[in-house]
Design a protein that fits this description.
Elements (H helix, E strand, L loop, with lengths): L5 E4 L4 E4 L21
Antiparallel strand pairs: 1-2
Amino acid sequence: CPIGAVFWNDEINKPMICIHCGYCIDYCPHGVLTMEET
């Protein structure tokens, strides 16, 4: 992910997905990020 919303966490050896502010949604070149209400 060029934006950094999806990245690899070496400590737990798993992918991490940022779900905080939603700012990057409009800038994802792949159009796969969305904001969901919880």
